[in-house]
Each structure stands twice: as structure tokens, then as C-alpha cells.
Amino acid sequence: MKTQINIKKIQDLLLHGLKSSYVDDDTSRRMWWLSLEVIQKEFLSHNCQDGGIWVASPLPALNEKKIFTKLQGWLFSPDGFSYFNKENAALLPANKTKKNKASSAYINNYKVLKLSEKDGYEPFLMVLTPNFQCILTIAGEKDKKVLLMRSDEESLKTVIELIHRKLNQDNFEEGINFRNAINNLGDLNINDHFVNNFWPSLSAKLAKSVPNLNVQNSIKNDDKTIQITEAKLLKAISHEVRTPLATIRTLISSTLRKFNMDDAMRNRLIQIDNECNEQIDRFGLIFNAAELVSNELSPTNQLAKINLVEIFNKLTPVWTKQLNRRGIFLKLDIPSQLPQILSDSEKLELMLRGLIDKNTRGLKVGSILILELRPAGQNLKLQLKVQKSENSKKEISKKEDGSDIGPVLNWNPQTGSLQLSQVATQKLLASLGGYVTRRRDTGLTVFFPISDSN
Questions:
Q1: C-alpha span between 356 and 256 (Å, rounded)
Q2: Angle at alpha carbon of residue 423, lines to 422 and 425, rounded to 5°
Q3: Looking at the structure, do residues 267 and 313 belong to the same domain, yes or no?
Q4: N or C end of the chain: smaller count of CB under 10 Å?
Q5: CA-CA distance, 240 to 97, in Å (whole number)?
Q6: Got the DSSP string for 49-80?
Q7: What is the dihedral of CA 176, 182, 186, 188, to 10 degrees?
Q8: Are 131 and 96 in contact (CB under 8 A)?
Q9: CB 200 within 8 A of CB 149
Q10: pLDDT 10s digit of each residue in the chain, 454 long?
Q11: Please, which residues have CB within 8 angstroms of residue 161's CB and are 6 or more apart in sequence?
């Protein structure tokens, strides 16, 4: 009888005979997340066009939508994630966009299998494409951990065979699918550039996360370190908030499909679903802002030409329903022909939803939100103006802006809501190519740069 294979045995095999310095659990996790960032952004995103596979435990580890689209995957995950199969698999990691046909390819592109207790819960990831291969994992005992990265031919062959055996014993059909996927990859070309640059890139990121030790700048650097730490914590919290909300949406969708019910109950479930979706969007925006603060991303990261009018036409029905539920009306003042702008369409949609939400919180029933879009030199100017109802003018004029709590969030006790701080809003818009101004008389104004080659 063959020995049963589990993830823990594979990790121990990779660790065997290795002479390395150990780190505590927290440090190993920090190294793990920074390693994933290096792998995805600096190497894998450029080497996934020809397809490939990934195997992970106990979470997908990968979080780039483009990578999910191109690669086939197998996830060993513990009980409690059973409802993330098929269309709901995008919730691990959390889905940042509304479901649409274009995203269904990556949503259905990995199989969720049960993780046993013997597998353990230390993270494991193997990625194989024709021109990029990597095994990344954490192994060792508590507070004596090692981050392991392997991309040599011998390690790859060994782990591929062990994963194949594990799949055969756990789910024979998936074992066949895995072997077919490996065969379809053909010959694997070891990526020497990755081999030579992974550890230096990881070291550079770790160095950036350590505060400057100059005495003269110690206080300033300590403040910055605290801000980055708070932002990273906020990223984790926003992910944890979105996951159960997305689960609730999944259960509601299933209930609406499978059960007959009266209109009152159906409408109540739809209302809960809408509220969950709005909160998912809000925390998705908070996640993006926290990522920007903690990683200090470039203000103009991977911008492309987009049609802002098309985005408004797509989002208007969503905004209309959202505002109508609160008794607020939406009025658009947008010419049909406008030049394209430079931005990131996916993140810009989320940002626009956040701006609408933030600037309508606290408005009374009968208020009208006016969205005006006009050319302004080399920019497109978006203005958000509120035409208040007669009953609400006095109350709104007294509304306070709230107070910032940390580098990302603002708390407004009058509306009882958490929103992006003004600084975080400005940084996030800057990363999308725009900048924001606010005047008491004209409301909120956002400028987006016009593409030079319309």
C-alpha cells in the first residue's frame, strides 16, 4: 500500500537537509506575502499568457485576476469554504468587481478540494507555466520557520509527482485532469531571470518595510511605519469583512433560485443582497486605498485609454437603484461625445461608486445628485453637485466632515459611517490619473487627463 501524501509531507521534504536561519511566525508570514507580490507583479504577470497551472493550500495565494484567467488551478481548502466552489470561487481571494461574463472564465478556473488535518495549514503554492516555474511555501515548527522557494528541475519533478499522487488519492478524476494539464504544458524552460532575481527583489521589499534608523529621522519614520502597519491591518480587515458578506450574497442567490416565496420575502432578500453588495464595494475601495498607503505604489500605475462616458452609462442604473432606495434622485449632464481619458477602468469604477456613496451619505429624502462631465483643457472635469430639498437645506449645511482615524479612514458620527479620508481619496485618485478639489459652493470636482492619442 502506497504511503498517503499530504501537503505537510511535501513541505517537510523540501525542508529536509536545508541549513538555514529560522524566523518567527510573524516574520515568515510577512516574507510570504511579500514573496507573492514579487512573484505575481515582477515575474508571473509577464509569463502567464501561454497558460499553465497552479496548486495552493489553504488559500489561493494568487490575487491577480489576469493570472486566474490564464491558469488552471487546484485549491486544497478546509471545511467552511465548500460554498466557494464554481462561480463563488472568486471570493477566495475576495472578488473586487461585480460579476460579469468576462470574469466567469477565471471564476470557474480552479477546483476546490478538501484539506485534511494532516495537510496542515502552512501556506503552499506551486505555479507552472512554460516559461516560469516556482514552488513557494513555509515549513518548520512554531517560531522556527523557513520560507522556501524552489525552481530547480529536480524539485519541480518531485513535487509535481507528489501532487499528482495526492490528487489521485483524494479525487481520482482531478488527478487525471492534473496529469493532462502537465502534459499539455510541454517542455518547461527554467526562468534564469527569476532564479537570479527573486531573493534580491524580496530582500529589497523587506528592506523597504523596515524603518530608517537615522536618529534625526527616527520620529518621522516611526510615524510612517505605524501608518503602513495600520494600512496593512486595514487591508486584512477589509478582506475579512467582504468574505462573509459575499457568502451571504451567495446563499441569498441560491435561496432565490431554489425556493418559492412570496414577493415580500423575495424583495427583502433582494434588499439584503443589495446592501451586502454596496458594503463589498465600499470595503473593496478601502482595500485599494490601504494597499496604496502600505505599498507606496506609483501614482500612475498601468494607466490605459478608457471611455468615461461608457463607464457612466454602465454604472448609472446601479447608482439610480442605490440612490432611489434612500429617496435621492440622480441627474446626469453628460455630452454624448467626449475624448478618452487615461486611467484604470476596473479600479475607477470602484472609485466612482465610492465617491457617489460618500457624497450622498446624510442627504435627506428628495435631494438630487447632479453629475456633470465637461472638457477642461487637457482634462475631463467631473463635478458632483447636490440640489438639496427644502426640508434638508438647514440640516445639511450643518453637517460636519467627521474626523480622520489613521491614514485611510474618516469617521462621521452624524451619518454613522466609515469613509475614505480626504488624503486617501486624493492618493487613490492620483493612482488612477486624476486629482480632486472640493469647494463649499461647487461641491466635489475631479479632473482626469485626456489621452493624447484619441
A1: 29
A2: 65
A3: no
A4: N
A5: 16
A6: TT-EEEEEESS-----HHHHHHEEEEEEE-TT
A7: -160
A8: no
A9: no
A10: 568 899 999 999 998 877 767 888 888 888 898 899 899 888 888 888 888 999 999 888 887 777 878 899 999 988 655 434 433 333 344 333 444 433 333 445 788 898 888 998 899 999 999 999 999 999 988 888 899 999 999 999 999 999 999 999 999 999 999 999 999 998 888 888 888 889 888 888 777 765 444 444 433 445 555 566 666 666 667 766 777 788 888 888 888 888 888 888 988 898 888 888 888 887 878 877 777 776 645 554 567 888 888 889 888 998 888 888 888 999 988 887 888 888 888 888 888 888 888 778 778 888 898 999 998 888 888 888 888 665 544 443 444 456 666 667 777 666 666 677 787 888 888 888 888 876 555 568 888 888 865 4
A11: none
Would 97 be classed as within a structural domain? yes
Asked if 295 contacts 224 with a C-beta cutoff of 8 angstroms, the reply is: no
> Domains in the chain: how many in total?
3
Contact partners, residue 168, CB within 8 Å, separation at least 6: 175
Per DSSP, the three-state class of 139 is strand
**Entry pTM:** 0.48
51, 127, 31, 94 alpha-carbon torsion, rounded to 10°: 60
341 occurs within a structural domain: yes
User: Interhelix angle for 263-295 vs 218-258, to 10°?
Assistant: 160
| Strand bridging mode 329-333 / 368-376 | parallel
User: Domain span at residue 385?
Assistant: 304-449
Q: Does residue 425 fall inside a structural domain?
A: yes
Distance between CA atoms of 297 and 316, rounded to whole angstroms? Answer: 30
| Cα(362)–Cα(282) distance, integer angstroms | 16
CA 312 to chain centre: 22
Q: Which of 278, 295, 312 is at the close of a domain?
A: 295
d(CA 54, CA 137): 13
Assigned C-alpha cell, 259: 425556493
CB burial of residue 76 (10 Å; 0-12, 13-18, 19+): buried
Cα–Cα distance, 77 to 58 (Å, whole number):
5
Please indicate, yes or no, whether residues 253 and 379 belong to a single structural domain of this protein.
no
What is the Cα–Cα distance from 428 to 354, expressed in whole angstroms?
11
**192 and 69 share one domain:** yes
CA distances from 48 to 69, 97, 102 (A): 9, 21, 18
List all residues 6 or more positions away from 281 whose beta carbon is below 8 Å from its beta carbon.
350, 353, 354, 357
Is 454 part of any domain?
no
